[in-house]
């Protein structure tokens, strides 16, 4: 009986591996569009966004307004395409942490004793998806996968990332 359960569980893990790339694609598309929309909204109202940053005591508020808005817009586009996904996740993570540290600082302070407040803030899901993309990559349905396949097939001595289900 235990052997049958073990074998069934191993098949479940194997079949579940096939969901990785389609799920990562859906996440990238959905959150990429949301990032682009948020970035575009800030870009078209850049003075309004810079004023918000000024009220949050940001130095060089117009510079940081363009930096944050551009990061969100271009980062969202890269997520949609699956291009430089892990790389672009880093500035997006920094942008979301900065949003927590400035605009949502009270929620950040309650992280350990009231985590529901922290996770209910707008940056949380954006931050979470970026951490997932950084950790798991964009999956097979991405430009990164095609580039990696082409480059790593030619390169020697570089460890190759395995996309096969376990």
TrEMBL record:
<dbReference type="InterPro" id="IPR032808">
    <property type="entry name" value="DoxX"/>
</dbReference>
<keyword id="KW-1133">Transmembrane helix</keyword>
<dbReference type="InterPro" id="IPR051907">
    <property type="entry name" value="DoxX-like_oxidoreductase"/>
</dbReference>
<feature type="transmembrane region" description="Helical">
    <location>
        <begin position="12"/>
        <end position="31"/>
    </location>
</feature>
<feature type="transmembrane region" description="Helical">
    <location>
        <begin position="63"/>
        <end position="82"/>
    </location>
</feature>
<dbReference type="Pfam" id="PF07681">
    <property type="entry name" value="DoxX"/>
</dbReference>
<feature type="transmembrane region" description="Helical">
    <location>
        <begin position="87"/>
        <end position="103"/>
    </location>
</feature>
<keyword id="KW-1003">Cell membrane</keyword>
<feature type="transmembrane region" description="Helical">
    <location>
        <begin position="123"/>
        <end position="143"/>
    </location>
</feature>
<keyword id="KW-0812">Transmembrane</keyword>
<dbReference type="GO" id="GO:0005886">
    <property type="term" value="C:plasma membrane"/>
</dbReference>
<keyword id="KW-0472">Membrane</keyword>
<protein>
    <submittedName>
        <fullName>DoxX family protein</fullName>
    </submittedName>
</protein>
<comment type="similarity">
    <text>Belongs to the DoxX family.</text>
</comment>
């Amino acid at each position: 009986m235990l052997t049958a359960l073990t074998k069934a569980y191993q098949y479940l893990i194997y079949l579940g591996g096939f969901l990785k790339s389609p799920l990562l694609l859906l996440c990238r598309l959905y959150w990429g569009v949301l990032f682009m929309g948020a970035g575009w909204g800030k870009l078209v109202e850049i003075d309004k966004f810079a004023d918000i940053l000024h009220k949050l005591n940001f130095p060089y508020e117009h510079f940081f307004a363009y930096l944050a808005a551009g990061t969100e817009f271009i980062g969202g586009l890269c997520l949609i395409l699956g291009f430089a996904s892990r790389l672009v996740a880093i500035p997006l993570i920094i942008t979301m942490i900065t949003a927590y540290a400035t605009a949502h600082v009270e929620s950040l302070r309650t992280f350990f004793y009231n985590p529901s407040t922290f996770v209910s803030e707008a940056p949380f899901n954006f931050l979470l998806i970026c951490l997932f993309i950084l950790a798991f990559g964009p999956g097979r349905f991405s430009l990164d996968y095609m580039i990696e396949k082409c480059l790593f097939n030619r390169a020697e001595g570089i460890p190759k990332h395995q996309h096969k289900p376990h």
